[in-house]
């Protein structure tokens, strides 16, 4: 990517689209810290994090991966995964992590997902379905109230129905928590339906950046035409 | 014979627990073992010869193992070396270090009080060994069980399971891997310290084959005791260490010379890796037979062979078996 300048305001829900190889994932991985920047600066919530590690950025950042297996630890239980996600600091702490009061809190968190996960707190995550794992990843990513939520084609690996379900869940969670969100998607309909801002990436550049009413009025056909250029 | 195996097994148990920590929790095959085991022995014996008590000397052995683990951890995480190579490098370097610590290739203890000498003289040496082994292994297990109930322990488990997710959740995975290497090799060196005191000497060659012993014991232990809770898993390691010692004692009783024990260790490891694979295969074949009987077609050669091929059994050592 080259000469990219992108400012995301608090509360924005940005949908990012683009062809394969256009640089969507590069953009997201650079923000997340898995790819280093060659030049330029990256600030999160007012902190310059250009040279900081993935773990350091986790103070402000959460991420849902495309592969449901990546966002959760399969050998650990649902409750243990939630514990890891709850606070992005204190991973070196020597305090006991399991408390009875937390079990009840976790149940309350999982119930709205409507996936029966509230009764499976001690189940190892590897035994959950892809949809369940992705819903759990989403919940985990939002548990720490991040300043920026990164969604990396998080419904692409799911079947159409589960994909819709997880997308609806995403909308609910983002709205209730007023989360600033950046979502990469391959589905143009999702990019048009969700979010208040749409960014199109092509050849490592930001080709289109529309927001508010302009985005709401954007038609799929117009987008298609832009893609073809 | 069994009593002796229990005693010896308990002395080897910290090594098996150490191998378990890297191999199962962090998902790393760590060859540092072959160097940190004799390092523990060398440091402990040297410290005792220079006047330290057995307790202090054993703790020094543990700490030396931690340092060895730290080196491998740094090579692995900061210098981005493959973990196998990192282990080999530390192991090779430790050979020289161990020679320097000992001064010569074999150092016997003289009249120093070893850990078993703290116990009543009236007890038989087998009982003394068992008591010392129980106390040390018990302390190691208790500390680890406590560790894995803390947030730090959870972060360690998460790092071994899914490093990408752990980093995304704010866990500094490099630190966790280094810490895992340190604790693991500390336990392994502690085991070396115990064995040296039990044998009455430290030897430069006593580390050879310890990784095979460790892995075989881990797998044997998991065959006999498997569960998800940490105390069950760790107890399984102790059981594995004892059974493994017992197998070797039986082999020696059958007249195998001591020199052949290494190849026996290797064979035992091959067998315990293959056993679960064969078991899965047999199970698949049985299920298939039952299924074919149900649909009333016993002679379906073509389906049988194609299904057999599909059912690829999971190896215990395969890293992607999850």
Radius of gyration of chain A: 18 Å
The radius of gyration over CA of chain B amounts to 22 Å
Approximate shape of chain A:
globular
Number of helices of chain B: 12
Q: Would you tell me the overall average pLDDT of chain B?
A: 89
- What is the residue-averaged pLDDT of chain A? 86
Q: Under CATH, the topology of the largest domain in chain B is which?
A: ABC transporter involved in vitamin B12 uptake, BtuC
Helicity of chain A, in percent? 25-40%
Please report the first level of CATH classification, the CATH class of chain A. Alpha Beta
Unreliable runs of chain A: none
- What is the subunit arrangement here? heterodimer
Measured by DSSP, the beta-strand proportion of chain B falls in: under 5%
Distance between the termini of chain A: 19 Å
List unreliable stretches of 5+ residues of chain B: 301-316, 318-322
Give the SSE string of chain A: EHEEHEHHHEHEHEEHH
Strand order of the largest sheet of chain B: 1-2
List keywords for this structure.
heterodimer; A: 229 residues; alpha/beta; Rossmann fold; six-stranded mixed sheet; 8 strands; B: mainly alpha; two-stranded antiparallel ribbon; 73% helix
Précis, in short:
The complex is a heterodimer of chains A (229) and B (322). Chain A is α/β, with parallel strands linked by helices and 229 residues long.
List the helices and strands and how they pair.
The complex is a heterodimer of chains A (229) and B (322).
Chain A: E1 13-18, H1 24-32, E2 43-44, E3 47-48, H2 54-57, E4 61-64, H3 78-86, H4 100-110, H5 130-143, E5 148-152, H6 160-177, E6 181-184, H7 188-193, E7 197-202, E8 205-211, H8 212-216, H9 220-228
Parallel strand pairs in A: 1-6, 1-7, 4-5, 5-6
Antiparallel strand pairs in A: 2-3, 7-8
Chain B: H1 2-25, H2 33-49, H3 54-77, H4 83-102, E1 106-108, H5 125-147, H6 151-161, H7 163-168, H8 173-199, E2 201-203, H9 210-224, H10 230-253, H11 261-294, H12 301-310
Antiparallel strand pairs in B: 1-2
């Amino acid at each position: 990517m080259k000469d990219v300048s992108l400012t995301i305001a608090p509360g924005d829900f940005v949908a990012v689209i683009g062809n394969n190889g256009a640089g969507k994932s590069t953009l997201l991985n650079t923000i997340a810290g898995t790819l280093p920047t060659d030049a330029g600066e990256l600030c999160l919530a007012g902190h310059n994090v250009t040279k900081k590690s993935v773990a350091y950025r986790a103070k402000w950042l959460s991420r849902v991966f495309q592969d449901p297996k990546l966002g959760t630890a399969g050998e650990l239980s649902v409750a243990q995964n939630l514990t890891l996600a709850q606070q992005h600091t204190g991973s070196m702490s020597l305090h006991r992590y399991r408390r009875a009061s937390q079990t009840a809190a976790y149940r309350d968190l999982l119930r709205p997902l409507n996936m029966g996960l509230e009764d499976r707190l001690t189940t190892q995550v590897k035994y959950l379905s892809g949809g369940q794992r992705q819903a759990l990843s989403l919940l985990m990513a939002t548990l720490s109230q991040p300043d920026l939520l990164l969604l990396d084609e998080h419904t692409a690996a799911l079947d159409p129905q589960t994909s819709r379900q997880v997308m609806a869940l995403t909308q609910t969670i983002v709205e209730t928590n007023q989360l600033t969100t950046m979502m990469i998607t391959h589905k143009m309909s999702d990019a048009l339906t969700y979010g208040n801002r749409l960014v199109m990436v092509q050849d490592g550049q930001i080709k289109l950046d529309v927001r508010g009413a302009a985005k709401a009025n954007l038609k799929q056909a117009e987008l298609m035409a832009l893609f073809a250029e | 014979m069994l009593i002796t195996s229990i005693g010896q097994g308990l002395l080897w148990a910290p090594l098996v627990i150490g191998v378990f920590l890297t191999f199962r929790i962090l998902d790393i095959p760590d060859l540092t073992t072959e160097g940190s085991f004799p390092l523990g022995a060398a440091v402990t014996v040297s410290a005792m010869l220079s006047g330290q008590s057995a307790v202090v000397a054993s703790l020094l052995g543990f700490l030396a193992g931690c340092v060895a683990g730290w080196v491998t951890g740094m090579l692995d995480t900061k210098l981005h070396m493959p973990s196998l190579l990192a282990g080999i490098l530390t192991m090779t370097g430790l050979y020289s270090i161990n020679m320097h610590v000992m001064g010569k290739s074999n150092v016997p203890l003289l009249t120093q009080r070893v850990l078993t000498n703290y116990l009543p003289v009236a007890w038989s040496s087998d009982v003394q060994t068992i008591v010392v082994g129980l106390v040390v292994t018990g302390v190691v297990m208790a500390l680890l069980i406590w560790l894995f109930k803390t947030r730090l322990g959870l972060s360690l488990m998460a790092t071994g399971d899914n490093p990408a997710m752990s980093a995304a959740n704010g866990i500094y995975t490099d630190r966790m891997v280094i810490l895992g290497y340190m604790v693991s090799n500390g336990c392994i060196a502690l085991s070396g310290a115990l064995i040296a005191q039990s044998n009455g000497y430290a030897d430069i060659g006593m580390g050879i084959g310890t990784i095979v012993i460790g892995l075989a014991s881990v797998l044997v232990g998991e065959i006999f005791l498997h569960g998800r809770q940490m105390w069950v898993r760790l107890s399984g390691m102790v059981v594995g260490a004892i059974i493994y010692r017992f197998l070797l004692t039986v082999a020696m009783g059958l007249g195998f010379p001591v020199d052949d024990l290494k190849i026996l260790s290797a064979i035992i490891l091959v067998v315990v890796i293959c056993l679960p694979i064969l078991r899965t295969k047999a199970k698949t074949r049985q299920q298939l037979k039952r299924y074919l009987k149900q649909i009333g077609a016993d002679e379906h050669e073509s389906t049988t062979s194609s299904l057999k091929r599909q059912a690829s059994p999971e190896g215990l050592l395969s890293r992607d078996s999850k």
